[in-house]
Design brief:
The protein is an all-alpha fold. The chain has helices spanning about 5-25, 30-40, 40-45, 60-70. It has one domain.
Amino acid sequence: MNVSQAEFQNMKEEIVKDLISRLMEERGLTMQEAFDKVYNSRLFEKLNDPKTGLYFQSSGYVYSYLQDEMNNK
């Protein structure tokens, strides 16, 4: 499925917003810490690549990958 650059950006931003909220809620991170975790993750690099299709997935599914990455550091 093809989406415009604007649609891709919006979908990606919604997922990032959810990831940050979940990190703050579930891990007790400050907003700045949560932003840093998300934007400096390998997952975010993959989320930025439309070819991965991650932007089509639920935020819960994407969050599970972020959790795995954080737990394995």
